[in-house]
UniProtKB/TrEMBL annotation:
<dbReference type="InterPro" id="IPR039420">
    <property type="entry name" value="WalR-like"/>
</dbReference>
<dbReference type="Pfam" id="PF00196">
    <property type="entry name" value="GerE"/>
</dbReference>
<dbReference type="InterPro" id="IPR011006">
    <property type="entry name" value="CheY-like_superfamily"/>
</dbReference>
<dbReference type="GO" id="GO:0000160">
    <property type="term" value="P:phosphorelay signal transduction system"/>
</dbReference>
<feature type="modified residue" description="4-aspartylphosphate">
    <location>
        <position position="60"/>
    </location>
</feature>
<dbReference type="InterPro" id="IPR016032">
    <property type="entry name" value="Sig_transdc_resp-reg_C-effctor"/>
</dbReference>
<dbReference type="GO" id="GO:0003677">
    <property type="term" value="F:DNA binding"/>
</dbReference>
<dbReference type="GO" id="GO:0006355">
    <property type="term" value="P:regulation of DNA-templated transcription"/>
</dbReference>
<dbReference type="InterPro" id="IPR000792">
    <property type="entry name" value="Tscrpt_reg_LuxR_C"/>
</dbReference>
<dbReference type="InterPro" id="IPR001789">
    <property type="entry name" value="Sig_transdc_resp-reg_receiver"/>
</dbReference>
<keyword id="KW-0805">Transcription regulation</keyword>
<dbReference type="Pfam" id="PF00072">
    <property type="entry name" value="Response_reg"/>
</dbReference>
<keyword id="KW-0238">DNA-binding</keyword>
<feature type="domain" description="HTH luxR-type">
    <location>
        <begin position="152"/>
        <end position="217"/>
    </location>
</feature>
<dbReference type="InterPro" id="IPR058245">
    <property type="entry name" value="NreC/VraR/RcsB-like_REC"/>
</dbReference>
<keyword id="KW-0597">Phosphoprotein</keyword>
<protein>
    <submittedName>
        <fullName>LuxR family two component transcriptional regulator</fullName>
    </submittedName>
</protein>
Length: 221
């Protein structure tokens, strides 16, 4: 495969040894090439102006000066065609939700095997998303259904005002208890809303609720 045909990948991570190791792995995949590396979001902005637009960015969440959330949001506004895969040491539900809202197309853990990294790159390139084991196969199927023209309208019409209000709060970093306080309801009632939506929308996780809300325009990203 010729150099110009390779998929261009940028790396943003403040841990130099990890980043260099990641670069070696990515370059070793053959069809991918590392375009540039950056220490943080501000450095990333400089690098993209110097080296041009990558196809995919492997983005660490926790970086000094300008973190992964801010950098992904900046990319979405200035380079909307660049696809971001978030990198994290933790499978935090709030971190996943926040990165999805910032525009990330995938989320993998830093201790993932090279084979999973390859799957994430391939999936984002071919399908436009990668959710790994953090989101179930059932959710991926539902997300695909939501891309069909008629599915969202039918499902959205089945939700009442309070369920939609709950969905909006679920897309924030509030805990379920904090959502209960905000809606002047008991935690048990909020659990009931959540479980009812899981069943109604055929989802299993809060991340799934967020993806549904984003796809249907209940929240904007």
């Amino acid at each position: 495969m010729k150099q110009q045909q390779k998929i261009k990948v940028a790396l943003a991570d403040d841990h130099v040894l990890l980043r260099n190791g990641l670069a070696s792995v990515v370059d070793g995949f053959g069809e991918y090439v590392v375009l540039f590396q950056a220490d943080n979001g501000k450095h990333f902005q400089q690098q993209i102006r110097a080296y041009g637009e990558p196809d995919i960015v492997l983005m660490d969440i926790n970086m000094p000066e300008m973190d992964g959330y801010q950098t992904a949001q900046w990319l979405k506004e200035h380079y909307p065609l660049v696809m971001v895969i978030a990198l994290s040491m933790y499978d935090s539900e709030n971190a996943i939700i926040k990165m999805f809202k910032a525009g990330a197309k995938g989320y993998i853990l830093k201790d993932s095997e090279p084979a999973e990294l390859k799957r994430s790159l391939d999936s984002v390139r071919q399908k436009g998303f990668y959710y790994s084991e953090l989101v179930t196969g059932r959710l991926i199927h539902t997300i695909n259904k939501l891309g069909e023209a008629n599915a969202p309208k039918k499902e959205l019409n089945s939700l009442n005002d309070r369920e939609i209000e709950f969905l909006r709060y679920a897309c924030t970093e509030m805990t379920y208890k904090e959502i209960a306080d905000k809606m002047f309801l008991s935690p048990r009632t909020i659990d009931g809303y959540r479980d009812a939506l899981f069943e109604k929308l055929e989802l299993k996780t809060r991340v799934g609720l967020v993806m549904y809300a984003i796809k249907n325009g209940i929240v904007t990203v």
